[in-house]
Amino acid sequence: MAKHEFCYHAPAKINLYLKITGRRSDGYHELETLMQKVALFDRLNFTLLPQSGIRLDCGDCGLPEDKNNIIFRAASLFFDFTARQQQGVQIVLEKNIPIAAGLGGGSSDAAAVLLALDRLCATHCSRKELADLGLQLGADVPFFVYEMLTGWATGIGEELTPATPITDFLVVLANPGISVSTKWAYETFALTSAENIFNLYCSQKENHRNKSGVNGKDCPFTPKELNNDLEDVTSGKFCVIKKIKQKMLDEGALGSLMSGSGPTVFGLFSKACRQEAETCCRKLQKEFDQVYLVAPLA
What we know:
This protein is α+β, with helices and mostly antiparallel strands. It contains 10 helices and 11 strands.
């Protein structure tokens, strides 16, 4: 491949644990979340152009192809940061990760843009510089900039600590075809309710346990520790989420949870029980268009 072209596979992620611990004065929520990259990828093809400008082709996936797309904004931000406003790029997106689904597809694509352009333009930015740029685009982007496959994210998502990948499991993903706004989910989550005040208190007490115990060397992650504070918010509006979870559990999943702000639900199956995972996947595919059996990246 010529030096002015590059192809990047941007992975999806699932949130194995997500607890909201507070809200800052700027409106961002502070959280603790354990994210795992999985083998479901968007494909982005980059070609440097001799003239300035960003050309984005998203095919027929329905995404905008201008500044309303995070991919476009990532390229513009990169060129501004590196003082390469005269550089042009064509980006062709092959979208496989469901859109607005809690799987981090947009954030992963944005990170892919930063990493690919740094390589194509030979700007030699550090990962921290690219992660800081990514944070301006979205809280999950830094996780995809760094090479870690599994990681704890705290703060608003920018403070990252590597964790052990969940190699003993297979993952069934099921998206019911509903778009959920991350902003809506977080804004709907009410820290003022009695239950969530209790959750906030407990999460502060368990902070050490979450970072050094869950998925740590002395206490590997288990499906019993699955948790997502946003699940009640989204499933309260879309009852299909609870139905998918129950179907996964009925088919042998050791645990099931909504990822991120949803609505994608995942089920963890023992790697030794692949047949159960495949059966679950086939049954869900009869009801929903976007169902996948994937492995955690490791």
